[in-house]
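Why do we bother with holo predictions? Because pocket geometry can differ from the apo form. Keep that in mind while you read this record for nicotinamide-adenine-dinucleotide.
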Amino acid sequence: MKATIAVLPGDGIGPEVVGQATRLLDAIAEKYGHEFVFVEGMIGGIAIDETGDPLPAETVAICESADAILLGAVGGPKWSDPTATVQPERGLLGLRQHFGLFANLRPVKTYPALAEQAPLRAELLQDVDILFVRELVSGIYFGERQEQGEGDVSYDTMRYSREQVAQVANVAFRAAQGRRKILCSVDKANVLASMRLWRRTVVEVHKDYDDVALEHLLVDAATMHLLTRPNSFDVIVAGNMFGDILSDEASVLAGSLGMLPSASLRADRFGLYEPVHGTAPDIAGKGLANPIGMFLSAAMLLRYSLGLEAEATAIEAAVDAALDAGLRTADIARAGEEIASTAAFADAVISRV
Ligand code: NAD
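The structure, written out:
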């Protein structure tokens, strides 16, 4: 197949991991007889420096004519002045909103090869395989807000409509049907009106998916259950802010933030694929970045936007094989273990593809 992929490296370690991901996708294209055309655009801090806009119109146009978007990460200390009028993160939020990417999928699984480094006891981490589905374009991050300005008051608004909850719940139920058929919906229905609507709507949508078992957890309880019984979860659906916080909490189960991929989807096949981590300014430019989160994001792109299941599985298997062979980037290496650079780890994965 021929596919056009918009490539937005962004800032910090973004370009380092994105560069390795396009090499990996080239290897996949060669092996399976596809043609992937990469068209690069600017986003985030670098786009602010060059154009004054974290999401230039040209970048949006590149993405509009692509089949999917592959993104590194945006932001860094250079642009982190809270009083600045434009922030790099606005580029990412703008992209998600422009394309209506309402469902953020973040798989978290544990790797037997890394069990010893994880902060939880090994038996708790056995067979952890969770898919977070986070609502991405509404809720408190997008509600009406008042900055402090000259006054002493500021606020944010958590707002959800039935339709917004239903569309993300449908994605979550469908995902559960393709997995172990258990959905946990997280809310704060005991306190927040918007979260009572969330729970009512999820219960309503459940009527169309009676083969899926539905559980509800309050977000405060969910933070504990994630650490005490992580392998009992299959799919977890949550609103924008709760999903953001819980999926980051769950990232420790995988051993490092650098391991986790994500996909942001709408109802058709178009999507934005990016690692969960940020720009890691502390290690940027040193060849220390773990490319696994980026690679598994590329695998999700092949699976969800291009329908290339075998190719996606080939990437996931190659990552597993490189870990099983003992390759470790600095973030997942134990004291005394040999450290593979970003490029060396990528070479190991690409050669296994
Ligand atoms: P971060 O994810 O960049 O880094 C947190 C820690 O994890 C750091 O110690 C970093 O070295 C490590 N880390 C992250 N990714 C890694 C990888 N692939 N390999 C090895 N180690 C890795 O989060 P932060 O430090 O809170 O944020 C840094 C900047 O990134 C900020 O400007 C923030 O706004 C931005 N950010 C962007 C995104 C995004 O673009 N989606 C997400 C989170 C943070």
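Residues 119-254 form a domain with the Isopropylmalate Dehydrogenase fold (CATH 3.40.718.10).
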